Amino acid sequence: MQNEIEPERVEVVVVGAGISGLQAARLLRGKYSVKVLEARERVGGRLQNHFFANGDSVDVGGQWVGPGQDRMYRLIGELGAAIWPLYDRGDNLLYLAGKSRRYRGTIPKINPIALADLGLAMARFESMARSLDPAAPWLHKKALHWDSMTLDSWLQKNCRTKLARQLFAVGIGAVFAAEPAELSLLHALFYARSGNSLETLLAVTGGAQQDRVHGGTAGLCEAMARDLGERVRCNAPVESVTELPGGSLQVRYRQGVIICNRVIVAVPPNQALRIRFEPELPAWRDKLLQRMPAGSCIKCVARYEKPFWRDSNLSGQVASPQGPVRVTFDNSEQGKASGLLMGFLEGDVARYYSNVSPSERREAVLDCFARYFGETARNPLEYVDKDWSSEGWTRGCYAALFAPGTWTGGGARLREANGRIHWAGTEFAVEWFGYMEGALEAAERVAAEVDAVLNGTTGHHDFNKPEAHHV
To answer: For the whole model, what pTM was predicted?
Structure first.
Protein backbone atom coordinates (compact mmCIF):
# COMPACT_ATOMS: atom_id res chain seq x y z
CA MET A 1 0.00 0.00 0.00
CA GLN A 2 1.39 3.35 -1.05
CA ASN A 3 1.89 6.07 1.51
CA GLU A 4 -0.62 8.90 1.39
CA ILE A 5 0.70 12.02 -0.33
CA GLU A 6 1.58 14.73 2.17
CA PRO A 7 -1.22 17.28 1.90
CA GLU A 8 -0.66 20.92 1.05
CA ARG A 9 -2.12 23.53 3.40
CA VAL A 10 -3.71 26.79 2.34
CA GLU A 11 -6.48 28.92 3.73
CA VAL A 12 -8.79 28.94 0.68
CA VAL A 13 -9.30 26.48 -2.18
CA VAL A 14 -11.18 27.69 -5.25
CA VAL A 15 -12.71 24.96 -7.40
CA GLY A 16 -12.81 26.14 -11.01
CA ALA A 17 -10.63 28.56 -12.97
CA GLY A 18 -13.34 30.32 -14.91
CA ILE A 19 -13.57 34.09 -14.69
CA SER A 20 -15.49 33.94 -11.38
CA GLY A 21 -13.12 31.57 -9.63
CA LEU A 22 -10.04 33.41 -10.86
CA GLN A 23 -11.40 36.76 -9.73
CA ALA A 24 -12.34 35.40 -6.30
CA ALA A 25 -8.77 34.14 -5.93
CA ARG A 26 -7.31 37.47 -7.02
CA LEU A 27 -9.44 39.34 -4.52
CA LEU A 28 -8.41 37.09 -1.63
CA ARG A 29 -4.77 36.37 -2.38
CA GLY A 30 -3.49 39.63 -0.90
CA LYS A 31 -4.62 38.50 2.58
CA TYR A 32 -4.84 34.71 2.43
CA SER A 33 -3.07 31.73 0.89
CA VAL A 34 -5.16 30.51 -2.06
CA LYS A 35 -5.07 27.58 -4.47
CA VAL A 36 -7.25 27.34 -7.62
CA LEU A 37 -7.96 23.83 -8.93
CA GLU A 38 -9.15 23.48 -12.53
CA ALA A 39 -10.29 20.20 -14.07
CA ARG A 40 -9.46 21.21 -17.64
CA GLU A 41 -6.03 21.62 -19.17
CA ARG A 42 -6.80 25.32 -19.60
CA VAL A 43 -8.30 28.18 -17.63
CA GLY A 44 -11.38 30.12 -18.75
CA GLY A 45 -14.26 27.74 -18.20
CA ARG A 46 -17.03 28.79 -20.58
CA LEU A 47 -14.66 31.29 -22.22
CA GLN A 48 -12.40 29.83 -24.92
CA ASN A 49 -10.43 31.04 -27.94
CA HIS A 50 -10.07 29.22 -31.25
CA PHE A 51 -7.12 29.99 -33.49
CA PHE A 52 -7.55 29.78 -37.25
CA ALA A 53 -4.79 28.65 -39.59
CA ASN A 54 -3.89 32.27 -40.46
CA GLY A 55 -3.33 33.10 -36.78
CA ASP A 56 -6.59 34.99 -36.25
CA SER A 57 -8.54 34.03 -33.16
CA VAL A 58 -12.21 34.02 -32.26
CA ASP A 59 -14.20 33.46 -29.08
CA VAL A 60 -16.07 30.17 -29.26
CA GLY A 61 -17.49 30.78 -25.78
CA GLY A 62 -18.79 33.93 -24.06
CA GLN A 63 -17.58 37.07 -25.79
CA TRP A 64 -19.67 40.21 -25.32
CA VAL A 65 -19.68 43.10 -22.87
CA GLY A 66 -22.02 46.05 -22.83
CA PRO A 67 -23.22 49.15 -20.93
CA GLY A 68 -23.93 48.51 -17.26
CA GLN A 69 -21.26 45.83 -17.00
CA ASP A 70 -18.89 48.05 -15.06
CA ARG A 71 -16.93 45.25 -13.40
CA MET A 72 -16.06 43.76 -16.78
CA TYR A 73 -14.91 47.08 -18.24
CA ARG A 74 -12.85 47.72 -15.13
CA LEU A 75 -11.23 44.27 -15.35
CA ILE A 76 -10.48 44.74 -19.05
CA GLY A 77 -8.75 48.02 -18.25
CA GLU A 78 -6.86 46.51 -15.30
CA LEU A 79 -5.49 43.75 -17.47
CA GLY A 80 -4.44 46.13 -20.25
CA ALA A 81 -6.83 44.67 -22.83
CA ALA A 82 -8.71 46.68 -25.44
CA ILE A 83 -12.27 46.55 -26.74
CA TRP A 84 -13.98 47.33 -30.01
CA PRO A 85 -17.67 47.49 -30.93
CA LEU A 86 -19.40 44.60 -32.65
CA TYR A 87 -20.14 45.57 -36.26
CA ASP A 88 -23.62 47.09 -36.20
CA ARG A 89 -23.92 49.14 -39.39
CA GLY A 90 -26.21 48.53 -42.32
CA ASP A 91 -29.40 46.50 -42.50
CA ASN A 92 -30.35 43.49 -40.42
CA LEU A 93 -32.24 40.64 -42.07
CA LEU A 94 -35.42 38.81 -41.11
CA TYR A 95 -35.63 35.54 -43.01
CA LEU A 96 -39.25 34.49 -43.17
CA ALA A 97 -41.17 32.12 -45.45
CA GLY A 98 -38.26 31.78 -47.83
CA LYS A 99 -37.65 35.52 -48.20
CA SER A 100 -35.28 38.02 -46.61
CA ARG A 101 -36.54 41.37 -45.35
CA ARG A 102 -34.27 44.21 -44.33
CA TYR A 103 -34.83 46.16 -41.13
CA ARG A 104 -33.06 48.33 -38.56
CA GLY A 105 -33.18 48.09 -34.77
CA THR A 106 -34.16 45.19 -32.50
CA ILE A 107 -37.66 44.33 -33.75
CA PRO A 108 -38.01 43.38 -37.44
CA LYS A 109 -40.67 44.72 -39.78
CA ILE A 110 -43.52 42.22 -40.11
CA ASN A 111 -47.22 42.50 -40.90
CA PRO A 112 -48.88 45.19 -38.77
CA ILE A 113 -51.08 42.81 -36.76
CA ALA A 114 -48.19 40.52 -35.77
CA LEU A 115 -45.96 43.53 -35.14
CA ALA A 116 -48.50 45.08 -32.77
CA ASP A 117 -48.99 41.71 -31.09
CA LEU A 118 -45.25 41.28 -30.58
CA GLY A 119 -44.86 44.84 -29.33
CA LEU A 120 -47.64 44.44 -26.77
CA ALA A 121 -46.22 41.13 -25.52
CA MET A 122 -42.77 42.64 -25.18
CA ALA A 123 -44.20 45.63 -23.30
CA ARG A 124 -46.11 43.36 -20.89
CA PHE A 125 -43.05 41.21 -20.29
CA GLU A 126 -40.81 44.24 -19.65
CA SER A 127 -43.36 45.76 -17.25
CA MET A 128 -43.56 42.52 -15.27
CA ALA A 129 -39.77 42.21 -15.17
CA ARG A 130 -39.35 45.78 -13.91
CA SER A 131 -41.62 45.00 -10.96
CA LEU A 132 -39.19 42.34 -9.66
CA ASP A 133 -36.39 42.79 -7.15
CA PRO A 134 -33.57 40.77 -8.76
CA ALA A 135 -32.07 40.16 -5.31
CA ALA A 136 -35.24 38.38 -4.18
CA PRO A 137 -37.58 37.47 -7.07
CA TRP A 138 -39.33 34.92 -4.85
CA LEU A 139 -40.76 37.75 -2.71
CA HIS A 140 -42.83 39.28 -5.52
CA LYS A 141 -46.54 39.10 -4.79
CA LYS A 142 -47.06 37.07 -7.99
CA ALA A 143 -43.91 34.95 -7.63
CA LEU A 144 -45.75 31.68 -6.93
CA HIS A 145 -48.09 32.25 -9.87
CA TRP A 146 -45.31 33.21 -12.30
CA ASP A 147 -43.08 30.38 -11.09
CA SER A 148 -45.85 27.84 -11.60
CA MET A 149 -45.92 28.36 -15.37
CA THR A 150 -43.45 28.16 -18.21
CA LEU A 151 -42.55 31.08 -20.41
CA ASP A 152 -44.15 29.15 -23.27
CA SER A 153 -47.52 28.95 -21.52
CA TRP A 154 -47.36 32.72 -20.93
CA LEU A 155 -46.54 33.31 -24.61
CA GLN A 156 -49.47 31.20 -25.72
CA LYS A 157 -51.78 33.48 -23.75
CA ASN A 158 -50.10 36.79 -24.53
CA CYS A 159 -49.11 36.44 -28.21
CA ARG A 160 -52.23 35.93 -30.28
CA THR A 161 -50.44 35.47 -33.60
CA LYS A 162 -48.17 32.55 -34.46
CA LEU A 163 -45.55 34.83 -36.03
CA ALA A 164 -45.28 36.97 -32.89
CA ARG A 165 -44.80 33.83 -30.78
CA GLN A 166 -42.16 32.53 -33.19
CA LEU A 167 -40.17 35.76 -33.16
CA PHE A 168 -40.39 36.08 -29.38
CA ALA A 169 -39.07 32.50 -29.17
CA VAL A 170 -36.13 33.41 -31.45
CA GLY A 171 -35.17 36.12 -28.96
CA ILE A 172 -35.57 33.73 -26.03
CA GLY A 173 -33.33 31.20 -27.75
CA ALA A 174 -30.69 33.86 -28.34
CA VAL A 175 -30.71 34.93 -24.67
CA PHE A 176 -31.15 31.59 -22.88
CA ALA A 177 -30.02 28.89 -25.37
CA ALA A 178 -33.27 27.17 -24.49
CA GLU A 179 -36.88 26.72 -25.57
CA PRO A 180 -39.60 28.81 -23.87
CA ALA A 181 -41.11 25.59 -22.50
CA GLU A 182 -37.92 24.88 -20.51
CA LEU A 183 -38.08 28.10 -18.49
CA SER A 184 -40.08 29.25 -15.54
CA LEU A 185 -41.78 32.55 -16.38
CA LEU A 186 -40.41 33.93 -13.10
CA HIS A 187 -36.87 32.96 -14.10
CA ALA A 188 -37.23 34.59 -17.52
CA LEU A 189 -38.47 37.79 -15.86
CA PHE A 190 -35.69 37.71 -13.25
CA TYR A 191 -33.04 37.12 -15.92
CA ALA A 192 -34.24 40.09 -17.96
CA ARG A 193 -34.43 42.31 -14.85
CA SER A 194 -30.97 41.13 -13.78
CA GLY A 195 -29.56 42.48 -17.06
CA ASN A 196 -31.70 45.65 -17.03
CA SER A 197 -34.32 44.51 -19.57
CA LEU A 198 -35.02 41.95 -22.29
CA GLU A 199 -34.45 44.66 -24.88
CA THR A 200 -30.99 45.31 -23.38
CA LEU A 201 -30.15 41.62 -23.60
CA LEU A 202 -31.19 41.50 -27.26
CA ALA A 203 -29.58 44.76 -28.43
CA VAL A 204 -26.14 45.33 -29.94
CA THR A 205 -25.28 49.05 -29.72
CA GLY A 206 -26.34 50.13 -26.24
CA GLY A 207 -27.02 46.53 -25.31
CA ALA A 208 -25.42 43.34 -24.07
CA GLN A 209 -23.77 42.58 -27.44
CA GLN A 210 -22.11 45.98 -27.85
CA ASP A 211 -18.38 45.30 -27.38
CA ARG A 212 -15.74 42.63 -27.98
CA VAL A 213 -12.33 42.12 -26.36
CA HIS A 214 -9.15 42.04 -28.44
CA GLY A 215 -7.41 38.76 -27.74
CA GLY A 216 -10.69 37.20 -26.66
CA THR A 217 -12.35 36.98 -23.27
CA ALA A 218 -10.39 33.78 -22.61
CA GLY A 219 -7.30 35.96 -22.89
CA LEU A 220 -8.53 37.84 -19.82
CA CYS A 221 -8.63 34.60 -17.88
CA GLU A 222 -5.16 33.66 -19.10
CA ALA A 223 -3.87 37.03 -17.87
CA MET A 224 -5.60 36.52 -14.51
CA ALA A 225 -4.03 33.08 -14.20
CA ARG A 226 -0.57 34.45 -15.01
CA ASP A 227 -1.14 37.05 -12.31
CA LEU A 228 -1.96 34.28 -9.82
CA GLY A 229 1.02 32.20 -10.92
CA GLU A 230 1.53 28.89 -9.13
CA ARG A 231 -1.70 29.36 -7.21
CA VAL A 232 -3.52 27.99 -10.29
CA ARG A 233 -3.31 24.28 -11.06
CA CYS A 234 -4.87 22.80 -14.24
CA ASN A 235 -5.66 19.14 -14.99
CA ALA A 236 -6.75 18.93 -11.37
CA PRO A 237 -10.39 17.79 -11.15
CA VAL A 238 -11.67 17.86 -7.59
CA GLU A 239 -13.02 14.50 -6.47
CA SER A 240 -14.12 15.16 -2.91
CA VAL A 241 -14.42 17.75 -0.14
CA THR A 242 -14.36 16.24 3.34
CA GLU A 243 -14.80 17.97 6.69
CA LEU A 244 -12.14 16.85 9.14
CA PRO A 245 -12.32 16.72 12.95
CA GLY A 246 -11.80 20.28 14.12
CA GLY A 247 -13.63 21.76 11.16
CA SER A 248 -10.97 22.14 8.46
CA LEU A 249 -11.67 20.79 4.97
CA GLN A 250 -9.76 18.19 2.98
CA VAL A 251 -9.94 18.69 -0.78
CA ARG A 252 -8.89 15.63 -2.73
CA TYR A 253 -8.10 16.08 -6.42
CA ARG A 254 -6.45 14.00 -9.10
CA GLN A 255 -2.85 14.78 -8.11
CA GLY A 256 -3.10 15.21 -4.39
CA VAL A 257 -4.74 16.58 -1.27
CA ILE A 258 -5.10 20.08 0.18
CA ILE A 259 -6.18 20.95 3.72
CA CYS A 260 -7.91 24.33 3.93
CA ASN A 261 -10.25 26.48 5.95
CA ARG A 262 -12.72 27.45 3.22
CA VAL A 263 -13.75 26.13 -0.21
CA ILE A 264 -15.25 28.26 -2.96
CA VAL A 265 -17.11 26.23 -5.58
CA ALA A 266 -16.98 28.23 -8.83
CA VAL A 267 -18.07 25.70 -11.44
CA PRO A 268 -21.39 25.32 -13.31
CA PRO A 269 -24.06 23.90 -10.96
CA ASN A 270 -24.33 20.65 -12.93
CA GLN A 271 -20.57 20.11 -12.46
CA ALA A 272 -20.73 20.73 -8.71
CA LEU A 273 -22.83 17.57 -8.56
CA ARG A 274 -19.75 15.58 -9.64
CA ILE A 275 -17.95 16.41 -6.39
CA ARG A 276 -18.42 14.09 -3.41
CA PHE A 277 -19.06 16.05 -0.24
CA GLU A 278 -18.57 14.46 3.19
CA PRO A 279 -20.78 15.03 5.02
CA GLU A 280 -23.20 15.32 2.14
CA LEU A 281 -24.55 18.70 1.19
CA PRO A 282 -27.92 19.51 2.75
CA ALA A 283 -30.76 17.91 0.80
CA TRP A 284 -32.12 21.31 -0.21
CA ARG A 285 -28.79 22.31 -1.78
CA ASP A 286 -28.45 19.05 -3.67
CA LYS A 287 -32.02 19.33 -4.97
CA LEU A 288 -31.42 22.93 -6.02
CA LEU A 289 -28.29 22.01 -7.97
CA GLN A 290 -30.18 19.17 -9.64
CA ARG A 291 -32.81 21.66 -10.78
CA MET A 292 -30.28 23.96 -12.43
CA PRO A 293 -29.45 22.28 -15.79
CA ALA A 294 -27.48 24.20 -18.41
CA GLY A 295 -28.85 25.56 -21.67
CA SER A 296 -27.97 23.88 -24.98
CA CYS A 297 -25.77 25.80 -27.41
CA ILE A 298 -23.45 25.17 -30.35
CA LYS A 299 -21.55 28.26 -31.47
CA CYS A 300 -20.54 28.21 -35.14
CA VAL A 301 -18.04 30.50 -36.92
CA ALA A 302 -17.05 30.60 -40.61
CA ARG A 303 -14.01 32.55 -41.81
CA TYR A 304 -14.00 34.23 -45.23
CA GLU A 305 -11.41 36.27 -47.07
CA LYS A 306 -13.36 39.40 -46.17
CA PRO A 307 -16.75 40.37 -44.67
CA PHE A 308 -18.40 40.35 -48.10
CA TRP A 309 -21.92 40.98 -46.75
CA ARG A 310 -20.91 44.52 -45.85
CA ASP A 311 -20.60 45.28 -49.59
CA SER A 312 -24.40 44.84 -49.73
CA ASN A 313 -24.87 47.17 -46.72
CA LEU A 314 -25.74 44.25 -44.44
CA SER A 315 -24.82 44.15 -40.76
CA GLY A 316 -24.42 40.38 -40.70
CA GLN A 317 -27.27 40.12 -38.20
CA VAL A 318 -30.11 37.75 -39.06
CA ALA A 319 -33.19 36.62 -37.17
CA SER A 320 -35.23 33.70 -38.47
CA PRO A 321 -37.89 31.45 -36.93
CA GLN A 322 -36.66 28.80 -39.35
CA GLY A 323 -33.40 27.06 -38.79
CA PRO A 324 -31.29 25.50 -37.76
CA VAL A 325 -29.31 28.78 -37.39
CA ARG A 326 -31.83 31.34 -36.18
CA VAL A 327 -29.48 34.15 -35.17
CA THR A 328 -26.24 35.37 -36.80
CA PHE A 329 -23.71 38.17 -36.23
CA ASP A 330 -20.73 39.68 -37.99
CA ASN A 331 -17.97 38.45 -35.69
CA SER A 332 -15.04 39.91 -37.65
CA GLU A 333 -12.25 41.33 -35.53
CA GLN A 334 -11.42 44.99 -35.90
CA GLY A 335 -8.14 45.49 -37.74
CA LYS A 336 -8.21 42.04 -39.37
CA ALA A 337 -8.96 41.41 -43.04
CA SER A 338 -10.92 38.19 -42.56
CA GLY A 339 -14.69 38.20 -42.39
CA LEU A 340 -16.20 36.03 -39.64
CA LEU A 341 -19.85 35.02 -39.65
CA MET A 342 -21.12 33.57 -36.40
CA GLY A 343 -24.35 31.70 -35.77
CA PHE A 344 -25.92 29.82 -32.89
CA LEU A 345 -27.67 26.47 -32.69
CA GLU A 346 -29.78 26.61 -29.54
CA GLY A 347 -32.26 24.61 -27.50
CA ASP A 348 -33.87 21.68 -29.31
CA VAL A 349 -31.87 22.41 -32.46
CA ALA A 350 -28.59 22.25 -30.53
CA ARG A 351 -29.60 18.96 -28.95
CA TYR A 352 -30.36 17.51 -32.37
CA TYR A 353 -27.16 18.69 -34.04
CA SER A 354 -25.09 17.59 -31.06
CA ASN A 355 -25.83 14.04 -32.20
CA VAL A 356 -24.95 14.27 -35.90
CA SER A 357 -21.55 14.06 -37.56
CA PRO A 358 -19.41 17.22 -37.63
CA SER A 359 -19.64 17.29 -41.43
CA GLU A 360 -23.45 17.12 -41.38
CA ARG A 361 -23.61 19.90 -38.81
CA ARG A 362 -21.19 22.04 -40.83
CA GLU A 363 -23.26 21.55 -43.97
CA ALA A 364 -26.49 22.51 -42.19
CA VAL A 365 -24.93 25.68 -40.76
CA LEU A 366 -23.42 26.76 -44.07
CA ASP A 367 -26.74 26.08 -45.81
CA CYS A 368 -28.26 28.68 -43.49
CA PHE A 369 -25.44 31.15 -44.08
CA ALA A 370 -25.88 30.73 -47.86
CA ARG A 371 -29.65 31.17 -47.57
CA TYR A 372 -29.14 34.45 -45.73
CA PHE A 373 -26.09 35.90 -47.50
CA GLY A 374 -25.77 34.11 -50.86
CA GLU A 375 -23.67 31.26 -52.22
CA THR A 376 -20.37 32.89 -51.28
CA ALA A 377 -21.21 32.03 -47.67
CA ARG A 378 -21.29 28.32 -48.48
CA ASN A 379 -17.55 28.15 -49.07
CA PRO A 380 -15.59 29.61 -46.16
CA LEU A 381 -11.82 29.36 -45.88
CA GLU A 382 -12.27 27.74 -42.47
CA TYR A 383 -15.10 26.68 -40.20
CA VAL A 384 -15.27 25.86 -36.49
CA ASP A 385 -18.06 25.08 -34.08
CA LYS A 386 -18.13 24.44 -30.35
CA ASP A 387 -20.74 22.12 -28.88
CA TRP A 388 -20.81 23.16 -25.24
CA SER A 389 -23.13 20.34 -24.22
CA SER A 390 -20.41 17.89 -25.25
CA GLU A 391 -17.69 19.78 -23.38
CA GLY A 392 -16.75 17.38 -20.59
CA TRP A 393 -16.44 19.87 -17.73
CA THR A 394 -19.29 22.16 -18.80
CA ARG A 395 -22.13 20.18 -20.35
CA GLY A 396 -24.05 23.16 -21.63
CA CYS A 397 -24.20 26.92 -22.05
CA TYR A 398 -24.78 29.77 -21.59
CA ALA A 399 -25.93 29.35 -18.01
CA ALA A 400 -28.21 27.29 -15.79
CA LEU A 401 -31.94 27.27 -16.48
CA PHE A 402 -34.58 27.45 -13.76
CA ALA A 403 -37.68 25.39 -14.50
CA PRO A 404 -41.03 26.12 -12.80
CA GLY A 405 -40.88 25.90 -9.02
CA THR A 406 -37.13 26.35 -8.71
CA TRP A 407 -36.99 29.99 -7.59
CA THR A 408 -39.89 29.73 -5.14
CA GLY A 409 -38.83 26.25 -4.00
CA GLY A 410 -35.23 27.08 -3.13
CA GLY A 411 -34.05 30.35 -4.63
CA ALA A 412 -34.07 32.17 -1.30
CA ARG A 413 -31.08 30.02 -0.22
CA LEU A 414 -29.29 29.96 -3.57
CA ARG A 415 -26.34 32.14 -2.50
CA GLU A 416 -26.16 30.85 1.07
CA ALA A 417 -22.91 29.23 2.20
CA ASN A 418 -23.08 25.61 3.35
CA GLY A 419 -20.86 25.71 6.40
CA ARG A 420 -17.34 26.32 5.09
CA ILE A 421 -18.38 25.86 1.46
CA HIS A 422 -19.21 28.98 -0.55
CA TRP A 423 -20.73 29.38 -4.02
CA ALA A 424 -19.56 31.55 -6.90
CA GLY A 425 -20.15 31.65 -10.65
CA THR A 426 -22.60 33.59 -12.79
CA GLU A 427 -25.52 31.43 -11.62
CA PHE A 428 -25.11 32.90 -8.12
CA ALA A 429 -25.26 36.55 -9.22
CA VAL A 430 -27.97 39.13 -8.60
CA GLU A 431 -26.96 41.42 -11.46
CA TRP A 432 -26.25 40.11 -14.95
CA PHE A 433 -27.01 36.49 -14.11
CA GLY A 434 -25.67 34.36 -16.96
CA TYR A 435 -23.05 36.89 -18.07
CA MET A 436 -19.38 37.46 -17.28
CA GLU A 437 -20.42 40.53 -15.32
CA GLY A 438 -22.53 38.31 -13.10
CA ALA A 439 -19.58 35.97 -12.60
CA LEU A 440 -17.50 38.90 -11.33
CA GLU A 441 -20.30 40.09 -9.05
CA ALA A 442 -20.55 36.62 -7.51
CA ALA A 443 -16.76 36.58 -7.06
CA GLU A 444 -16.92 39.85 -5.12
CA ARG A 445 -19.72 38.59 -2.89
CA VAL A 446 -18.01 35.29 -2.09
CA ALA A 447 -14.66 36.98 -1.47
CA ALA A 448 -16.35 39.31 1.02
CA GLU A 449 -18.01 36.33 2.73
CA VAL A 450 -14.77 34.42 3.07
CA ASP A 451 -12.84 37.50 4.18
CA ALA A 452 -15.43 38.23 6.86
CA VAL A 453 -15.20 34.78 8.44
CA LEU A 454 -11.43 34.39 8.13
CA ASN A 455 -10.85 37.91 9.38
CA GLY A 456 -13.13 37.31 12.34
CA THR A 457 -15.52 40.09 11.37
CA THR A 458 -19.00 40.33 9.95
CA GLY A 459 -18.31 43.67 8.30
CA HIS A 460 -18.49 44.05 4.54
CA HIS A 461 -15.23 44.52 2.70
CA ASP A 462 -15.86 46.34 -0.57
CA PHE A 463 -13.84 44.31 -3.07
CA ASN A 464 -15.33 46.48 -5.80
CA LYS A 465 -13.02 49.35 -4.88
CA PRO A 466 -9.98 49.61 -7.19
CA GLU A 467 -7.54 49.50 -4.27
CA ALA A 468 -8.90 46.10 -3.25
CA HIS A 469 -7.62 44.50 -6.46
CA HIS A 470 -4.21 43.00 -5.78
CA VAL A 471 -2.56 43.10 -9.21
So the answer is: 0.95
